[in-house]
Each structure stands twice: as C-alpha cells, then as structure tokens.
Amino acid sequence: LNLAAKSARKLYLGTATNSEQWNDTTYFNILKNNAEFGQVTPANVMKWFATEPEEGVFTFQDGDIIADFTKKTGKLLRGHNCVWHNQLPDWLETGTFSAPELAFIVSRHCFNLVNHYQGHVWDVINEAFNDDGTFRSDIFFDTLNTTYIPLALYAARAADPKAKLYINDFNIEGIGAKSDALKSLIKELKSQNVPIDGVGLQSHFEVGGVPPTLQQNMEEFVALGLEVAITELDIRFTALPPTPAGLAQQKADYETVVAACNAVPKCVGVTLWDFTDKYSWIPGTFPGQGDACPWTDEFVKRPAYEGIIEGF
Ligand code: XIL
C-alpha cells in the first residue's frame, strides 16, 4: 500500500492489535510491514482493567509491549482509552465512591496513563453518549454528571501538553441526534477552554450501511476547530456467507470511508479494528455476523482491500 503514490497527503492506515496474536507469524509480518500499516491502536491493554487492576496500582507492561513495537517500527500509536464504561476493573465496577473520590480516581487514572505514554494521541473519553444523544448512564455520569469529561481532559493535558486529546464514539459517523449531541458538547468544552483536539469516529459499519453524511459530518466537526479520525473501522456482513454482490458492496463501502477521510484535510487517518477476521471482535459480539475485515481469517485479501487502496 504505497500511500505516497496514491495521495499528496499522507493519511495513515492503521490497525488495532493484541500482542498475544504476534506469535502468529503470518499476522505479525503483515502488521509490522510499514507498507501496510503506519499506525497501531492497542485493542485492549491500555484499558482501565489492564492499567489499574487494583486501586491506585498502575501496570504498564502489556501496553509497553505495543508502545515499544510502534517506536521500533516507526508507527504512530493511539492510546485507547482513558475513560470508558466497559472493561473496568472489579474494584471500580463494584465499589461505591463519592463524587470527590471518583473525581480523584478519574484524574489520577487519566494523568498516569497519558503521562506514561508521552507524545501520543489519546481517546480520553470513549462512548459517553446514548444513541438518542443523551449522556450514557454509567458510574462516571451517575456519580459526576458531565463533569468527568473536562476533568479527564484537564488531567490528560496536564500529563502531556503535546498529546492530542480525543472524544471517541460509535454511531456518530453520520449526522443525527448522537453526533448533534457531541457537537453541542464540543462547543461547550471549547467555550470553557477545556482542552479537546479531536473526535474519533469508530465506524463499526454494516455492509451497505455507511452513512451518506459521513464526510459532511466530519467537516462539521472540523468546523468546530477539531481534527477527526476514523478510529475502529470494520464493515460486517449481517448474514454469512457473503455473496459476490455483497463483497463488491463491502469494497465500495471501504473505499467510501477512506475517500471521505481523504477529502477532509483535517481527517488524519483510518484505523481498522484489526485487519483480519481471524482476530476480529465482530463474531464474538454480533453472533452470526462477520467477514468484516479486509483480510480473511486465512490472510487472503478481500475486494475490500482494493477499496481501501482506491480510497487513498
Ligand atoms: C473491543 C475489543 O476488540 C475486544 O477484544 C474486547 O473484548 C471488547 O472491546 N469499541 C471500542 C473498543 O472502543 O475498545 C472495543 O474493543 C470495540 C468497540
């Protein structure tokens, strides 16, 4: 994938990964190839359960494996994530905390993560909204209302002034209630000078389901003074096996997403939520669905791969 030949701009193409997959040499050889991927996001090891398994005890070894790999290979690293309702450690999931206690816990967690991994992009806030645009009820919102959001962003900024700070979510890729709510939040944060640099559009799509307003929506986020990124792209079939027409549609969909990012100067790049079905999260989370990645589980490139190339 020679991006330089395809485009004057250099979007990155990246992928999520878990280092347990790296002893699969076919997998690892594709992952490390800088002609394929210029960016990596740890799929799990920088999440709260993995980085603060006991209250106030921070463990960075597993995350460091991925950070060291990106350093050695010259790839960009995306920190994922500081605050999310899922994959929390038991002590946080089952504990009861007053608002001041949880405010301290959130700031300490964000500060320590972003401080440890200097100079990177961070999904500071992940999945804060419901699909109707209201805030998600979780331990953070229920205890702190929306104040946990600026709190996490301030702590991240204090930990590393060079880090780009993002809010990341799904179903905000097209214009609608959820992206409208996020735009209102961004305006509010900006008006209060809360540090916020970007919006991550997860982009877990179904074949044929890329929102037609994707590019316009990204432009609207950029107009608020942000950069944007496609952070977790996969495009799944809801029924298997795919037909040839389905594979052609999937190829067109991958191209549409990459081309939309390419058309928006402040869209910095596209990250796949792993590049092969062998390690995709889709079959485990959406039973009966899948074939969502550009590489099959046997590392054969689907038409989708060509779609990505054409989108660049
Ligand atoms: C997923 C991982 O891929 C799985 O391995 C894990 O079991 C659950 O989380 N949105 C996100 C990602 O922001 O962190 C999620 O990753 C997929 C949905």
From TrEMBL:
<keyword id="KW-0624">Polysaccharide degradation</keyword>
<keyword id="KW-0119">Carbohydrate metabolism</keyword>
<keyword id="KW-0378">Hydrolase</keyword>
<keyword id="KW-0964">Secreted</keyword>
<comment type="pathway">
    <text>Glycan degradation; xylan degradation.</text>
</comment>
<feature type="domain" description="GH10">
    <location>
        <begin position="5"/>
        <end position="311"/>
    </location>
</feature>
<dbReference type="InterPro" id="IPR001000">
    <property type="entry name" value="GH10_dom"/>
</dbReference>
<dbReference type="InterPro" id="IPR017853">
    <property type="entry name" value="GH"/>
</dbReference>
<dbReference type="InterPro" id="IPR044846">
    <property type="entry name" value="GH10"/>
</dbReference>
<keyword id="KW-0858">Xylan degradation</keyword>
<dbReference type="GO" id="GO:0005576">
    <property type="term" value="C:extracellular region"/>
</dbReference>
<dbReference type="GO" id="GO:0045493">
    <property type="term" value="P:xylan catabolic process"/>
</dbReference>
<dbReference type="InterPro" id="IPR031158">
    <property type="entry name" value="GH10_AS"/>
</dbReference>
<keyword id="KW-0326">Glycosidase</keyword>
<keyword id="KW-0732">Signal</keyword>
<protein>
    <recommendedName>
        <fullName>Beta-xylanase</fullName>
        <ecNumber>3.2.1.8</ecNumber>
    </recommendedName>
</protein>
<feature type="active site" description="Nucleophile">
    <location>
        <position position="232"/>
    </location>
</feature>
<dbReference type="GO" id="GO:0031176">
    <property type="term" value="F:endo-1,4-beta-xylanase activity"/>
</dbReference>
<comment type="similarity">
    <text>Belongs to the glycosyl hydrolase 10 (cellulase F) family.</text>
</comment>
<dbReference type="Pfam" id="PF00331">
    <property type="entry name" value="Glyco_hydro_10"/>
</dbReference>
